[in-house]
Design a protein that fits this description.
The protein is an alpha/beta fold. The chain has two domains: 2-97 and 288-322, 3-Layer(aba) Sandwich (Rossmann fold), CATH 3.40.50; 119-275, 3-Layer(aba) Sandwich (Rossmann fold), CATH 3.40.50.720. 34% of the residues lie in helices and 15% in strands. It has twelve helices and twelve strands. Strand 10 (228-232), helix 10 (241-249) and strand 11 form a beta-alpha-beta unit. Helix 5 (98-116) packs across helix 7 and helix 5 (98-116) packs antiparallel against helix 12. The longest helix is centred in the N-terminal third of the chain and has 19 residues, at 98-116. It is globular, with a radius of gyration of 21 Å. The structure holds glyoxylic acid (2 copies). One glyoxylic acid (GLV) binds at residues 51, 74-76, 285. The site of one glyoxylic acid has 5 residues, from loops.
């Protein structure tokens, strides 16, 4: 099988792939351009892609009729047109696991706590020599205990974020299409409007779809409590970044922490200049444990497929019976 890996991934799992396969691994320390993806991907049976690769039907056709599996080294798969894959009989896999859920949930909490206690600002000031002795009112933040965290999207990651709230003394509200019968009974299902108007912290855990694109916009932001905080470790385009800037500039929001951006890797320069905004470079899943597990899963999906076994993490399960041979 010809296997094309669009960028080197951490761990030793790529070695496993080389046994009996013709494997091409990009040597660039950056995403491939579209042209590079086509020229190196042409004729591939399998693509191991990253979330920075945009793979639509046209790209699938340019890679050619041998393409049978796209194994995406990510939990999210909004970079792949799954409908286009389905109509061509191409399988798509992703890499969800508890390791990733934990890592993203921990990063969400790290951002929440850093926001409320102004850790990043205080660190910057202290390292720059601003600390001249204890003062009664420098870097006053917000106590987290007793507050309400609203979780938009109570899936695997949202649930993990909610579980971690229990030791923190934080009440959990959540919204999703329907109440989750499996959800812990202390997590309260509410409408989106109720969640926005009652939460001191709002954290986003939805996938990016047509329905969720710019779901957080001027209108929804205006329903948030004055002084509330927004945390986004999901996908950038779930938030309209311009309208977020307006809500921060006006003082309506107390702050925001963003790991993902509307037009990644570009970042609205106004956000960069705001002291009450924390920005991290899409690293919520960046722990050794999570990234290793992602590599293992992405590679195992390919090995399973090569042995005609159904990979456990198929995104388009219904394509299995009509898969390209
Ligand atoms: C990261 O954003 C992922 O989807 O794995
Ligand atoms: C702070 O350091 C205190 O003792 O209150």
């Amino acid at each position: 099988m010809k296997i094309v890996v669009t960028r080197k991934i951490p761990g030793n799992f790529l070695e496993k792939l080389k046994e009996g396969n013709d494997v091409w691994i990009s040597s660039f320390d950056r995403p491939l351009t579209e042209e590079e993806l086509i020229s190196n991907g042409k004729g591939a049976d399998v693509l191991l892609s990253l979330l920075t690769d945009h793979i639509d039907g046209e790209m699938m056709d340019a890679i050619g009729p041998n393409l049978k599996l796209i194994s995406n080294y990510a939990v999210g798969f909004d970079n792949i047109d799954v409908e286009a894959a389905k109509s061509r009989g191409i399988l798509v896999c992703n890499t969800p696991s508890d390791d990733v859920n934990e890592a993203v949930a921990e990063h969400t909490w790290a951002l929440l706590m850093s926001l409320s206690r102004r850790i990043v600002e205080a660190n910057y000031a202290t390292k720059n020599g601003a600390y001249k002795g204890w003062e009664p009112d420098i870097f006053l933040g917000t106590t987290i205990s007793g507050k309400t965290l609203g979780i938009i999207g109570l899936g695997r990651i949202g649930t993990m974020v909610a579980k971690k709230a229990q030791g923190m003394g934080v009440d959990i509200l959540y919204t999703k299409r329907n109440p989750d019968p499996e959800a812990n009974s202390s997590f309260k299902f509410v409408s989106m409007d109720e969640l926005l108007s009652q939460s001191d912290f709002v954290s986003l855990h939805v996938p990016l779809t047509d329905e969720t694109r710019h779901m957080i916009n001027g209108n929804t932001l205006s329903k948030m409590k004055t002084g509330a905080y927004l945390i986004n470790t999901a996908r950038g385009p779930v938030v309209d970044e311009h309208e977020l800037v307006d809500a921060l500039r006006s003082g309506h929001l107390g702050g925001a922490a963003l790991d993902v951006f509307d037009n990644e890797p570009e970042i609205n320069p106004e956000l960069i200049g705001m002291p009450n905004v924390i920005l991290t470079p899409h690293i919520a899943s960046a722990t050794h444990e999570a990234r290793n597990k992602m590599g293992e899963m992405a590679i195992n999906a390919i090995i399973d497929f090569a042995s005609d076994r159904k990979p456990s993490n198929l995104v388009n399960n219904d394509t299995w019976d009509n898969r390209r041979k």
